[in-house]
Amino acid sequence: xxxxxxxxxxxxxxxxxxxxxxxxxxxxxxxxxxxxxxxxxxxxxxxxxxxxxxxxxxxxxxxxxxxxxxxxxxxxxxxxxxxxxxxxxxxxxxxxxxxxxxxxxxxxxxxxxxxxxxxxxxxxxxxxxxxxxxxxxxxxxxxxxxxxxxxxxxxxxxxxxxxxxxxxxxxxxxxxxxxxxxx
Length: 183
What we know:
8 helices; Peroxidase, domain 1; elongated
């Protein structure tokens, strides 16, 4: 349900941005507001508190964002609060950001390797990803998991390429367990 809410509101904001030709400026605003919410968890908790009336929540949002953020973004924030969906604001803003990256053909990849990759390896990996996808550039989040033993796992959206030794050993163990030994 949360993903559906994030998609619905995030997509609506994206469509407004495209229609009005403000994709870049609205994207920068959303990033800034997203950062504000992440740094001010108490404020977000207050906006989600069930005992605070909706009118007061809207007033709090307008007080902070009116004149500082576009009417489109302020309108989204107040609408989300009005509908009692402010607990989903993180997902809504993240969906919008992802949608803009897709629109600009900027991919997001999550790469987990057994050891830290060198700059040369990272450049080579990015080059290979650009060759095998329709993206024009990538934002890549690198992490290390020694439990992979060797190789790496690459996730782009809902696609996963797992070339880790751990997975290969696991697959081999499954195959071996299927073999019946003759008596």
